[in-house]
Amino acid sequence: MKIPVIKKLVANYSVEELEKAEEALGDEQKPQIEIDGEDEGEMLTHAYAAIWVKNKMIEDNMEFREAMRAFTQKVRKSIS
Q1: Which of 1, 11, 31, 45 has the fewest Cβ atoms nearer than 10 Å?
Q2: According to the lineage, what is the superkingdom (predicted)?
Q3: pLDDT tens series, the chain, 80 aa
Q4: Could you tell me the pTM of the whole model?
Q5: For residues 4-38, b (16+ Cβ closer than 10 Å) or e, as one string?
Q6: Contact in structure between 6 and 46 (CB atoms under 8 Å)
Q7: What are the phi and psi torsion angles at 65 (to 5°)?
């Protein structure tokens, strides 16, 4: 997971575009938007993270930095 990639996705695409890309990757198809990543798994992770962060920014009126921090904390909790 690379934060600059997630930031680029959040800045350049709508939630709808990101959801379509996530769905395409889940169906092993090429997304219509450009998502950086070493493989489809990393690209899917970036799309999912961008959707989560963008929704958090909208719903809770947060800046990117705060929403990204909330996402990374959520990931850390799920791992431990």
Answers
A1: 11
A2: Bacteria
A3: 999 999 999 999 999 999 999 999 999 999 999 999 999 999 999 999 999 999 999 999 999 999 999 999 999 988 88
A4: 0.92
A5: ebbbbbbeebeeebbebbbebbeeeeebeeebebe
A6: yes
A7: -55, -45
